[in-house]
Every structure is written in C-alpha cells, then in structure tokens.
Amino acid sequence: MHILVIEDNSDLAANLGDYLADRGHVVDFAGDGITGLNLALREPFDVIILDLTLPGMDGLQVCKRLRAESHRHTPVLMLTARDALDQKLAGFESGADDYMVKPFALQEIEARINVLGKRGRAPSTRVLSVGDLSFNLDTLQIHRAGKAITLNPIGLKLLQCLMESSPSVVTRRELELRVWGEELPDSDSLRVHIHGLRAAIDKPFGKALIHTRHGIGYSLSDPDAVSTPA
Q1: What integer pLDDT is reported at residue 179 of this predicted model?
Q2: Per DSSP, which regions of the chain are E strands?
Q3: 228 located within any domain
C-alpha cells in the first residue's frame, strides 16, 4: 500500500516508516499539517496516518479539510497522546476512520492499516458523471472541468434527476414531482430554477449540457458524447 504519515515527531515517523517499508509498503512523510494536507489532496494514498497535534494545522483541521476538498475517501488513522473520550469523538467527527492512542505497538498499526486499506478500496461513494460534470451524491460535491459548483437544495434535486436520466428527456411533470411532490408550485417556478441551474452548470463553461425539449421537458447530456445515426 501507499501510505502517508503526517507526524511531526521525526523519531516516531522514522520508526513507522522503517517498519512499514520492511513489510512492503511505500511510505511518504509530512512533518506539519499544511504539507500533509497538500500531499493528501494531490496524491492517491491508500491510507493516511495522521497525528492529532501538528504545527501549522492540527490533525482535526487536516481531516476536516481533506473530507471537504478531496474527491476520494482515503481512510485516516488518527494518532494522539490523548485518550479522553471527547478527543476520540472529535477525531471521528472530523472524518477519521480509526483512532490509536500513543504509545502503541507497530504490529497493531500495521493490522489496522491493512483493514483500512481494504475498506478504502471498496466502493464507498455514488458519483454521477456526464461529460466533464460530476456529482457526488454522498458528499453533494459538484465539479465541472475541475471547478467546484455550489447549488441550492432545489438545484441539487433537479441536477440529480437530470443526470440519473441522462441522456433521456425528463418531462416537466416528472421534474416538478421529484422536487415538490404533489404540492406543485406556480407554472414559472421550474423554469426559474432551470435557468439558475444553467447559470451554474453551463454558463461559465462555454458548452451547454442542459437542453430544452420544447413542449416536453429537459435533458442533460454531453453533445460530443452522443452518437448521431448515419
């Protein structure tokens, strides 16, 4: 496995690295939170071993930002000298997958990262993709051409419905039922929200993915990926 150790104690980091490398793992290191976060966001690690007390940015902040900004859910094993319950709960709430209190046995570290590595390789997220647009249904993160997009709750529902049906046309009635249920809004509400969705999804990128089917409804598709009959 490819493992990132974010630990400011150089002796401990070296011991971990030597032990894990002897067992066939590839280990990278960071001695502070900011460097560790940048590495974690840039490289596809199998497991991250993260110390709680770090210079620059503590482990809780690193874990929270990693979960908010990364497209991957890399398993995180958090290390700390603190064993109070509230500290453990704070670690899990920040997004850590497991927790170990120092001092610890190196054999147990390896056993835990082996379990976390298998968990990390299992499918854990649901992501819809159309062209260069992606929508993570678990985190509600949306990206197009690598840029993050923020939508309101109605926009999220509309986008999910259109992407799940892509490239098929979704009728106005289907979209209204999906968003508002049987308590339908006035006749202009769907048009207004589709306009807002287009402003976020299409306008900044120069190629439209949302298409109007006059008198029927809307579809979301990448025109470059749709084959045309000969």
Answers
A1: 83
A2: 2-6, 26-30, 47-51, 76-80, 98-101, 127-130, 133-136, 141-144, 147-149, 170-171, 210-213, 217-220
A3: no
